[in-house]
Amino acid sequence: MREVEILAERLKDGDKRALSKALTLAESLNHDHMAQLSELLGKLKNIKHESLKLAISGSPGVGKSTFIEAMGLYLCNRGYSVAVLAVDPSSPKSGGSILGDKTRMNQLAAMNSAFIRPTPSDGNLGGVARSTENSIKICEVVGFDFILVETLGVGQGEFSAKKMTDMFVLILSPLGGDELQGIKKGIVELADMILVNKSDGDHEYLAANTLLHYESALKVSRKKSMGWDVPVRKISAINSTGIEEVYIDIKRFKDQNTIKKGHIFESEVQVKESIMEDASRLILNHINNSAFFSEYVSDLSKEVLEGRISVKFAAKQLLSYYSEGANKNK
To answer: Where in the chain is the domain with CATH 1.20.5.170?
Structure first.
């Protein structure tokens, strides 16, 4: 397609409008868009840039967006280019998403060397959106020095974000007592850096307590990886306190570790898992948006409510019906 060739050339030149269009293709479930994305990635596959990819994780309200803006502004002011891929939770009822990260990061959004793209999660529980993997690849082609992926912060599902990025940054609020025990061990073990945010004002004592707790916990639970000791730092993103020290740690991490250059998957097993996950989502999307299946699903739901069949049996019936429909439409 000539249109895809033009888009690829514009991306190589760092055109932000072309980047927005390419990311729209990555997010779309439209069959034609998926075909265009596949062709586009094929034309860009040999272009490599050493973008440093950071996953920024933490519970809702911990200050991820505030930290990303402070970190992004610091990087831009040092002459770096920054892309932010911010995953917003989708409504389980409407499927919609607020997509408010550009509003929350208005200073960073105004920087010429920054690009912010909020993306709905589409119900994906991996901490990232279905499209994040391809979005990262596209941002690398454009040549951003740093790609910051803001995750949903949903616990152990953040493994997907870890797989797609070079460095996993976990942000915590100042906590005390039983709250400290509530942080899931799994997500802490993923972290390459732990930041205790909101370490200012009345929170300073709790922040110091939280920092000591995690420094002690890491000494017991984790061994050094390639000579890397996971730093635990107090920061105040809203005041930009500690941001320079975080930057120094990030540079040190990059110098000590091999950065992934487009190789998100490490094995055929991971590729198969990703294909199966995407296929599952596409099938569900097809069922949810097809009039052909909606009436049948409604009938099955009534039978379940009346106690005539189980949910598991209804699911099996739907699968059979879906298979028959696919065969008829071949």
So the answer is: 1-46
User: Which of 179, 172, 175, 161 has its CA nearest to residue 232?
Assistant: 172
H/E segment holding residue 170 = strand 167-172
Asked whether 147 and 137 are in contact (CB, 8 A), the reply is no
Give the strands of the sheet with 146-150, arranged side by side. 114-120, 82-88, 146-150, 52-57, 167-172, 193-196, 232-234
Whether 224 has a pLDDT exceeding 60, the answer reads: no
Amino acid identity, residue 161?
A
CATH of domain 1-46: 1.20.5.170
CATH 3.40.50.300 fits 48-256, yes or no: yes
Residue 119, H or E segment: strand 114-120
Alpha carbon 218 to its chain centroid, in Å, reads: 25
Start-to-end C-alpha separation, the chain: 26
For CATH 3.40.50.300, list the domain ranges present in the chain: 48-256
Structure tokens at 132: 């994040």
Rounded to whole angstroms, how far apart are CA atoms 92 and 88?
A: 12
- How do residues 181-200 score in pLDDT, each as one tens digit? 555 566 777 889 999 998 88
pLDDT digits (tens, 9 = 90+) for 11-22: 988 899 999 999
Confidence of residue 330 (pLDDT cuts 50, 70, 90): very low
